[in-house]
Design a protein that fits this description.
Length: 487
């Protein structure tokens, strides 16, 4: 069935036309053969009956006068004038042979004794003519050694004097029938050949617009919506071609509209990328400014305050006042430490002074001390030469990843790898925590917690790739790949 479905409709139409023609030819052939056979048999019987009737009408007096010579002469002349007559017999009313056309023995099966002299054979005469034809003669069939013999029996004077028996071989009829059958099959073969040519031509005419539609469909599949197919008819295929052209025009219009929208989207995406990049730049600059202000102004002010408090503490004599001043100094020390930590998180000076690896090591060491978590950090032997934007992006992604691990992962180990190859720097962060499900990720996105999406956005803005792999109960792997230098 699958192979049949793959056959071209061109061959299917040819097969249907030729198959129907062959079926009709077989049916007509069977009907024609049967009709011809019946017609030939009828004509053979009529001819035998005419010969027998003619002989019966002339042999009446010869039988009564016992003129056997005249009978034999008449029978032989009648037989010689008709090629399909095998024999002619004249019997009396008792079935005794009076005259015949055999030169020797009768054919096997013609009489009860197969190999007997005709003079010694007595045929059983018909007792009655109940099964006679409307013309008044009987028909009998014998299987002889020469084939099927059809015998026509005509009574002489209603059978009171005797009977004329004319035996006709069906071989002659069969030969004629076979000749007609051969001619029929030759004609059928010629007609089938002509029908094949006609079917091929008709199929090509029918299939041509369908083939054009199929070809146009392939062009549509390739994205060529400007393709048009020729409409040559007004039938169903013509209507289909018109509908196809209309569909192609609609698709072309939609394609142009989509291209316009896509171009607008690309323009907006490029503008958004520029705005996001500026936003990150402004954000980092603001962090840098605030970090410097905290470090240069606020820290110095607190340091000066601690110095004044130290001087003041040395001049106090009241123990209660000293206690109060020591408590205030401790508060100022804690505030100073908090401000220093905040300044480092906002913009670590070590990132600008010593590079990305030193900044990462410092942050990781602080993370270990705060969260008591085992963190492994593998770096290349030779530090990569990275631009400021790339270094800052890697540092922020590391910060965000470790913050998420501390808050949500419930991990005990973290593996961090920094490597570079062929102008690409890769940061991999893997933990053995509980992972995060897709539902939780979508919920965090809806609630505005965009840590992962923010890291992805930051990486893509710099022309890099961000991959996030997580398995519930088996941890999370973040892989970031960025160019070492921005073009």
């Amino acid at each position: 069935m699958i192979k049949l479905q793959k056959i071209s409709i061109y061959y299917k139409i040819n097969a249907i036309i030729i198959g129907i023609l062959l079926l009709f030819s077989i049916i007509i052939g069977v009907i024609m053969i049967g009709t011809t056979e019946r017609l030939l048999n009828y004509q053979m019987e009529k001819r035998g009956a005419e010969v027998a009737t003619y002989i019966a009408s002339l042999s009446n007096n010869d039988i009564l006068l016992d003129d056997h010579y005249a009978l034999f002469d008449r029978l032989n002349k009648a037989k010689n004038n008709n090629d399909d007559i095998r024999y002619i017999l004249i019997t009396d009313s008792y079935g005794r042979v009076l005259a015949h056309t055999f030169s020797g023995l009768l054919p096997q099966g013609l009489a009860n004794t197969p190999k007997s002299s005709p003079a010694k054979i007595a045929f059983t005469p018909p007792i009655a003519l109940d099964n006679a034809t409307p013309e008044g003669y009987q028909i009998a069939k014998y299987n002889s050694n020469e084939g099927l013999v059809r015998e026509i029996i005509v009574p002489i004077e209603a059978g009171s004097i005797g009977f004329v028996r004319v035996g006709m071989l069906e071989k002659t009829t069969q030969k004629l029938l076979n000749k007609n059958i051969n001619e029929f099959f030759i004609i059928t073969l010629i007609l089938c050949s002509l029908a094949s040519l006609f079917a091929t031509r008709l199929s090509s005419i029918i299939i041509r617009p369908v083939a054009r539609l199929a070809k146009a469909t392939k062009e549509i599949e390739r994205g060529n919506f400007s393709i048009k197919t020729e409409v040559t008819t007004e039938d169903e295929i013509g209507h289909l071609a018109s509908a196809f052209n209309q569909m192609a025009a609609t698709l072309e219009q939609k394609k142009q509209e989509n291209n316009r929208l896509l171009e607008e989207l690309r323009t907006k995406e490029a503008l958004r990328a520029v705005l996001m990049n500026k936003l990150y730049t402004i954000q980092e600059e603001e962090r840098k400014r605030i970090s410097r202000e905290l470090h240069d102004e606020t820290n110095q002010s607190l340091a000066s305050l601690l110095a004044y408090m130290k001087v003041l503490l040395s001049k106090l004599t009241d123990e209660h006042q000293k206690t109060l001043l020591l408590g205030a100094r401790d508060v100022a020390v804690n505030v100073l430490e908090g401000l220093r930590k905040m300044a480092v998180e906002l913009r670590p000076p070590i990132l600008d002074d010593l590079g990305i690896i030193a900044a990462m090591e410092k942050y990781i060491q602080t993370f270990r001390n705060q969260h008591l978590m085992e963190v492994s950090f593998l770096t290349p032997a030779v530090p990569p030469l990275l631009s400021n934007e790339i270094s800052l992006a890697l540092y922020r992604i590391l910060q965000e990843s470790l913050t998420n691990i501390a808050k949500h992962a419930q991990a005990t180990q973290v593996y961090i790898t920094l490597s570079y190859y062929e102008n690409k720097v890769t940061l991999m962060i893997e933990d053995n925590g509980k992972g995060i499900s897709t539902e939780a990720l979508e919920k965090a996105h809806k609630n505005g917690r965009l840590g992962i999406y923010g890291m992805k956005e930051r990486a893509e803005l710099l022309g890099g790739n961000f991959e996030f792999e997580t398995t519930t109960g088996q941890g999370t792997l973040i892989t970031v790949q960025l160019p070492m230098r921005l073009e």
